[in-house]
Specification:
alpha/beta, Dihydrofolate Reductase, subunit A, two-stranded antiparallel sheet, 5 helices, 10 strands, globular, binds NADP nicotinamide-adenine-dinucleotide phosphate, 5-amino-6-(5-phosphoribosylamino)uracil reductase activity
C-alpha cells in the first residue's frame, strides 16, 4: 500500500489556472494510453481539498449544470475543509479538517492493501509529505505553461525524489513517476 499524489500539471508547475479552470488540460482530450483507469483500480481511499471538491460539485452537480453526472468514485473519499460544503447524496464523502495523520490512518484502514490517492491540491499533498506520509508522486506534465494558478507542490523537496520512470504520451505529455526517499 502506498500513498500517491497522482495529478496532471502544466510545464511551469500549476495544476489549475488562476481561475481554477482545467480547460488547459481538457483541450488534450483523453490521454492515450490512459494510465488513470489502471491507477484508479488500485486505489482504496481518496483525499482532496475543498477547492477540488467544489470544482467537481460545480461542474457535475451544481444548480447550473444542465447534464449532472454521477459522483466519479466508488472509493471512500476524505475532503479536507474548515467550512460546510454542499453534500452530494450518493457520494461516500467524509468531511475532515486539521492534522492529516489521523485521517491517513482512517484512510489506510479503509483501503486495506490498496493505495491511497491524494488528488490535490498541491498543499494538501504537501501536508502528507511534511508528515512523512507521502510515498510517491505520479505527475503528467502537459506541454503548456500557465504563468500562475494552483501550485503543483508548494514545498521544498530535499532530499531529492527518486525518478522511477519517465514515459512520453503522444506529443503532449510526459508522465513522471517518483518515489519519496526514506518512505
Ligand atoms: N490538474 C489536475 O489533475 C488537478 C488535480 C487536482 C485538483 N486540481 C485543481 O487544482 C485546484 C486545487 O486547488 P487548491 O490549490 O486550492 O487546493 P485544494 O486542496 O483543492 O483546496 C485547498 C483548500 O482545502 C482546505 N484544506 C486543505 N487542507 C486542509 C486541512 N488540513 N484542514 C482543513 N481544510 C483544509 C482549505 O480550504 P477551506 O478550509 O476554506 O475549505 C484550503 O484552502 C482546483 O481548482 C482543482 O480543481 C487539478
Amino acid at each position: 500500500m502506498a500513498t500517491i499524489y497522482y495529478t496532471a500539471t502544466s510545464l511551469d508547475g500549476f495544476i489549475a489556472d488562476e481561475h481554477n479552470s482545467l480547460d488547459w488540460l481538457f483541450q488534450f482530450g483523453e490521454l492515450e494510453p490512459n494510465t488513470f483507469d489502471a491507477f484508479l483500480e488500485g486505489v482504496g481511499a481518496i483525499a482532496m481539498g475543498s477547492t477540488t471538491y467544489q470544482w467537481i460539485y460545480d461542474h457535475d452537480f451544481g444548480t447550473e449544470v444542465d447534464d449532472p453526472k454521477p459522483w466519479p468514485y466508488r472509493t471512500p473519499t476524505w475532503v479536507f475543509t474548515s467550512r460546510q460544503l454542499p453534500i452530494i447524496a450518493e457520494a461516500d464523502v467524509r468531511f475532515v479538517s486539521g492534522d492529516v495523520r489521523p485521517i491517513h490512518k482512517d484512510m489506510a484502514s479503509a483501503a486495506g492493501d490498496k493505495n491511497l490517492w491524494i488528488v490535490g491540491g498541491g498543499d494538501l499533498a504537501g501536508q502528507f509529505y511534511d508528515c512523512g506520509l507521502l510515498d510517491e508522486l505520479v505527475v503528467s506534465v502537459a506541454s503548456v505553461t500557465l504563468d500562475g494558478g494552483a501550485p503543483l507542490f508548494p514545498r521544498r523537496i530535499d532530499p531529492p525524489l527518486k525518478l522511477l520512470s519517465a514515459k512520453p504520451y503522444g506529443h503532449d505529455f510526459v508522465e513522471l513517476h517518483y518515489s519519496v526517499p526514506g518512505q
